[in-house]
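Reply to thread "Modeling small-molecule complexes from scratch"

Following up on the discussion above, here's a worked example others can learn from. I took a protein sequence and the SMILES for pyridoxal-5'-phosphate and predicted the complex. Inputs first:
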Amino acid sequence: MSRSDDMERVDKLLARSFGVANGHLLVAGLDIDDLAATYGTPLFVYDRARVEAQLNTLNQVLPDSFDLFYSIKANPNASILRYLHAAGCGLEIASAGEFHQALAAGCPAERIIFAGPGKTMDELELVVSSGIGEIHAESQTEIERLAEVCDRLERSVHVALRVNPSEEVAGGAMRMGGTSSPFGIDEEALEDALARLLAHERLTFAGIHLFTGTQILDHEILAAQYRRGIEIGRRASKQAARALMTIDFGGGLGVPYFPGEEAINLQGLGQELAALMAEIADDPAFAGTRFVLEPGRFLVGEAGVYVSRITDVKVSRDKKFLIMDGGMHHHLAASGNLGMVIKRNFPAAVATKLDVAERETVDIVGPLCTPLDTVGRSVALPPAEIGDLVAIFQSGAYARAASPLGFLSHRSPPEVWADDGAHTLIRRRGDSADYLLDQPDFS
Ligand SMILES: Cc1ncc(COP(=O)(O)O)c(C=O)c1O
């Protein structure tokens, strides 16, 4: 990666989403140095206005028949859930824990969709008895389990079938369909699965869910995936002899992390969707259908910044290392160890030296005793000192939530909500003593 790549990516982000004053990073107008002094480091800061901007730009291009469900797994912080629910989103969950989080955020059960493999009897009982909006079954077993739960509870539930399409719609960074997959029911087996579902009177067939990849930046690939969903939905509607209530196209909308990546062309996506909706306008399979998107990363990714402090600067042979008080245990994705084939650097900056033009090449590492704990490799940064802050951008999604927080028993990082010059602690720093409390005394 060249120096100019590193600088250009950060400059773009600073111009679009953040600010600079006296060489310091501003998040929602707040000086990062002040936030670090108030809350300590390492910490995550989320800018509400960035979440709002992403939501608004997406809503602007979606046809009226679309309904957004935020995918909690990207970032389950209660303030984010409350904000997105209040802004009109439903919530997509993948566990009983996420169901409780969604309810605690004030989201009514009927605005919750439950997708994801391996749903247990206990989880299904919980959500069915609470009146969940829809369950998206990922296997025949789940259909049978749901039938049993509904019979026992004497309740009915809306069930959509998640389909693993027979051909891959290429282009996502992480493939979740089109090949052998634990996700969804193979398209070839859909007819059988639907017949089983239709045979249970307490299970109401709601529709089709198709989601085959995450971090997709090409709107044409997304549109192609949606077209496949329509095709499969049309067949399912014919078999069920009625219109579909739901077609869920999943999440997958990406954000640019790496050199050469550009934000999705949302206008282009909007045009493709408008064309698709026009094509199916008279199709009885889709009379009154709601089209669901369940984005996670797209809504919250860019809103988050991970901030840690330099505790040591070390030269070893021909390399210079910035040693931070945070690292991969809080941000596995930035270390390149969360499903990445090639380790590439997240955009990073010395957040207290943004006015320094000089550059040197350094590695940014965390405090863990493993070479995996590298969150920046050969990054061009201004010469930094112990005490400076380093910001890793694009850290709102799959960052804290997808990290091995217990590894090496450091305290877990707090989260701060930044809203137009105001800041609130929305998750306290974990105590390393928490790890002791979890363990029974065997002595
Ligand atoms: C079923 C389902 N829906 C939505 C999402 C959110 O995906 P993304 O964050 O790429 O939008 C995921 C992510 O894995 C998922 O598995």
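What I'd highlight from this example: Residues 140 and 193 are 6 Å apart (CA to CA). The mean pLDDT is 94. Questions welcome below.
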